[in-house]
Amino acid sequence: MLLLGLLLLQLSGITAAHQGHWEDYKYGHQGSEVLDKKPLCSWKCLLFTLQWPGGFCQSLNKDTECVIPQSINTWTIHGLWPLRVLSCCSCWPMFRSDVQEMEAELTEHWPSLVKTRSSFHFWLDEWHKHGACAACVEGMNSPLRYFQICLKLRGQFNIRRLLEDAGITPSCERLYKVVEVHRVLAPHLGDKHEIQCVTDDQGRQVWFQVKIPLSHNLTVGCDHHSGASSGPGWNGSPGHPCPPEVPFYYYPIDHQQPLQPCG
Ligand SMILES: *[C@@H]1O[C@H](CO)[C@@H](O)[C@H](O)[C@H]1NC(C)=O
Predict the structure, then answer these.
(1) Residues of the chain with pLDDT under 50
(2) Cα–ligand 1 centroid distance for 227 (angstroms)
(3) What does the DSSP assignment read for 205-222?
C-alpha cells in the first residue's frame, strides 16, 4: 500500500514536469527570464525569403533533381528567418497534424522543388532551423501560427504582379538590371530588400530569390538589419546579391524542363 502510494506520488510528479514543458511548447518562451536571455530570443529582424522557381533550379547542384509542380506558376516561399541567431533548437517537434488544416495552402505557396525531398520535410526543416526561434514572438509561437504568418506575408508581397505592372516579365531574351527591379520593388519590400542571383553553368546571372527584411513586429524594413547574409540556414547557400553592374535573367518557369527553361 505504501509502495503503491509512493509510486502514484512519483507518477504525478512526472506528469507535472511534462506539463511544464508542454506549456513552453504551446505558449512559446515569453515570460521565462532564463530563456529570454538566451541568444535564441534576442533577434531584432527577420528575413522573409521568396524564391522564383524559374531560377531556383539553377541554384541546385547538378545531382539534385528539380521539379516544378504543374500548379506552381509564381514566387514561392523559402522561409522566414530570424536574423543573427547563433543556432536554433530542434527541441520543438512539429508534426504533420500541426499544419494539416493549411496543408493545401502550404503546398501551393511553399512547395519543395527538390524531387527527393517532400514539401512536408522542407517545412519541418524550416521550422527547426528558424521557426522554433521565431516562436519567441507572440503570434508565431506554434508551428501553426508560424506557418500562418508566412502565408499571410506571401499574400502581402505579390512580386510577380508588381513586376508585371512595371513591364518586367520572365523572359529568355530580355535582361534586367538591379536598379530597375529595385526601383519597382522598394516601395513594397522596403529599401533594403535584396535581389539574389545564381551563376548558371554558362556564367549568366540568373535571378532566383528575394530577401525582405522585416521588424520584430513584421513591418517592412528593420533598423538593426545590416547585410542579409548572416545566421544559420543561408551560410553556404549558393546565392549572392545580383551584381549591380551585370544585367541578369528572369527566366520563365518551364514545368517540363525546369533546369533549362530556355532550351
Ligand atoms: C514596428 O517596429 C518598428 C521598429 O521597432 C517601429 O518603428 C514601428 O513603429 C512598429 N510598428 C508598429 C505598427 O508597431
Answers:
(1) 1-37, 228-235
(2) 20
(3) EEEEEEEEEEETTS-B--
What's the 216 CA to ligand 1 centre distance in angstroms? 8
pLDDT for the residue numbered 108: 97
Q: Among 137, 215, 218, 225, which residue has the most ligand 1 atoms within 8 Å of its CB, making it the best to mutate?
A: 215
**Spacing, Cα 214 to ligand 1 middle (Å):** 10
Identify the CATH number of the domain defined by range 25-249: 3.90.730.10
State the DSSP string of 92-114. Answer: S---HHHHGGGHHHHHHHS---B
Contacts of range 222-231, beta carbons closer than 8 Å, 24 or more positions apart: 222/44, 222/45, 222/46, 222/83, 222/192, 223/44, 224/44, 224/45, 224/83, 225/44, 225/45, 225/83, 225/192, 228/47, 228/194, 230/83, 230/84, 231/81, 231/82, 231/83, 231/84, 231/85
pLDDT at 42: 80
